[in-house]
Model the fold of this input.
Amino acid sequence: MRAIDAGILVCGECHELNRQEDQERAGQTQLCTRCGAHLHARKPDSLRRTWALLLTAMLMYIPANVLPIMTVYSLGKGQPDTIMSGVIELINYGMLPIAIVVFVASILVPTFKLVGIALLLFSVQRKQPLSARQRSLMYRFIEWIGRWSMLDIFVITILVALVKFGNLASIEAGFGAVAFCSVVVLTMLAAVAFDPRLIWDNTQTDQTD
Amino acid sequence: MLDTAGETSLTDMPLNRLVACHECDLLMPKPQLAIGEKAGCPRCGYELFRHTSQVVRRSLALVIAALLLFIPACFLPIMEINVLGQTSLDTVWSGVKALYEAGGILQSIAVVVFLSSMVIPLFKLLIQFLVLSSIRFDAGRSYGLFLYRVYQHMREWGMLEVYLMGILVSIVKLIDIAKPSIGLGLVCFVSLLLVQVWLEATMEPHQIWEALAEGYTDESH
Done:
């Protein structure tokens, strides 16, 4: 049985249970008796907000991968690096383990997140092939892994601060980094806007109790 | 849907004997846990809550340790490189500054990095400290409740562990060209990270919320 069926609202912030009051005073949301947060049975406008953030992230995903994220200047010559060329360069230097870490964090994870959140949204809105349990695992994974994509941004920050030797060698960040950073932040926000309880609504067959 | 009798009794039970899964909304009678045990949702597997002993005291000790490490971790040099006689060093703060000075749209990344590697981790620790103190000294609990709500929204936006990974990747990238040497700042940063992870594992939100709302006695763990 779901809490919503029992007329109980779970506070989104402190997880306290609250009995739903009569909705006679429409337009006024109930407040949590423990922490005072606004109560909603499900996050308001969850699907629409998640879609909006996800679509924006998808748009930014293109410049993030095409434009250079940083340019390495040495002896006056500049060599722009995109995310992918950075990974290839690491492989060429024979640093395979680090290349794999960067590849996973900067290419695999953002792509997986965009596809994964879109799949979750489709699955909530339509019939879908994955079971609720699989989808909730996927959601938890997306939520957990999201922040790790910031890796490349931090690397750029450190390199820009460290490598500044005038004409000899210096590193500049590029617009690709801005786009990439916004993809990471937008997909994290999309994961926050998504309400995982929607996955379980209308899936009575998955119940184990 | 099979056990109708059980369901009506679930609806009639007082709220403090029930618990609902935050991820899938499954309602169930609240399990009573012994110290060190944890409860998981039977339907989706999400961890409902744990029961840790001495939560407030242990967390308070950890949060103070983390706060002491914070300033050296951010402002002492993480590493130093030497190219043809010129040296250059990097701190968490100098990274933010260098990006910001690049100007233009790059300043937006500098702001994100500043927030996720310095401001939010610091605010999280300060809030944890204030919340725990308000429980420990039984003063200003209503502020404590409000601050802890703010904390819930900041949680995943502090990215110290990702930053550490960034430091490691940078070291590897520079190792052939410039022979980076590690500074004291990195030691403080790693310690801060370890203490913070430990703190997060100790400071069980469920128990903190209850302590904030209901009053705290030292004997009741």
